[in-house]
């Protein structure tokens, strides 16, 4: 529906490549004002600063799409060969990035309501022999979204997941 997002400001994490970029372009086609945030989301302060910069540039944020994927998460490796450091980067860091994005989005949207969408590919629903850390992180993000939806619904914040095929997640 052309123009259905006219006047809406949408922040897209991971919007510089892969599915995040495709989502950002699609939102622009629907006439949303799109701000893209890229980075590894290492701290809550970093994420909150990125949200504040987006707000200052584009205006109050109406929706957030968390589509960030660390390219390392898409490295295939057997479960038996997954080192602790690889688990931390491919699972823990991905889940932490989602948490920090949710916290910043909840803070940003709490006064006016809005939408938060977590991109959680189908790999979490089906499992994947070579991508156990990533599949685990994505399933954790799905649980995070359900809990956030229950907690923030009364504040008019809608939280959803979209589950594209994992093939669409690779950075372009």
Task: Describe this protein's structure.
A 5-stranded parallel beta sheet has the order 2-1-3-4-5, sandwiched between helices. The model has no long low-confidence stretch (mean pLDDT 92). The radius of gyration is 16 Å and the shape is globular. It is built from 5 helices and 5 strands, in the order E-H-E-H-E-H-E-H-H-E. It is an alpha/beta fold. The two termini are 26 Å apart. Helix 2 crosses helix 3. It is 45% helix and 15% strand.
Present the secondary structure layout:
Elements: E1 9-13, H1 18-29, E2 33-37, H2 44-58, E3 63-66, H3 84-109, E4 114-119, H4 123-126, H5 132-152, E5 157-162
Parallel strand pairs: 1-2, 1-3, 3-4, 4-5
Output the helix-strand order.
EHEHEHEHHE
- Mean model confidence by pLDDT: 92
Main β sheet profile: 5 strands, parallel
Strand content: 15-25%
- Using the CA coordinates, give the radius of gyration: 16 Å
Placed side by side, the strands forming the largest sheet appear as 2-1-3-4-5
Estimate percent helicity. 40-55%
Shape summary: globular
Q: Given the structure, what is the number of helices? A: 5
Distance between the termini: 26 Å
What is the number of beta strands?
Answer: 5
The secondary-structure class comes to alpha/beta
Uncertain ranges: none
């Amino acid at each position: 529906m052309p123009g259905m997002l006219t006047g809406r400001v949408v922040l897209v994490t991971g919007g510089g490549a892969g599915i995040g970029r495709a989502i950002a372009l699609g939102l622009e086609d629907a006439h949303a004002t799109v701000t893209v945030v890229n980075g590894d989301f290492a701290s809550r302060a970093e994420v909150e600063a990125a949200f504040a910069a987006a707000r200052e540039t584009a205006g109050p944020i109406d929706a957030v799409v968390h589509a960030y994927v660390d390219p390392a998460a898409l490295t295939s490796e057997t479960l038996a060969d997954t080192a602790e450091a690889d688990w931390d980067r491919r699972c823990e860091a991905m889940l932490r990035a989602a948490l920090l994005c949710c916290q910043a989005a909840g803070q940003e949207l709490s006064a006016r309501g809005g939408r938060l969408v977590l991109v959680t590919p189908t790999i979490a629903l089906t499992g994947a022999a070579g991508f156990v850390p990533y599949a685990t992180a994505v399933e954790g993000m799905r649980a995070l979204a359900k809990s956030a939806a229950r907690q923030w619904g009364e504040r008019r914040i809608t939280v959803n997941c979209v589950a594209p095929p994992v093939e669409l997640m690779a950075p372009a």
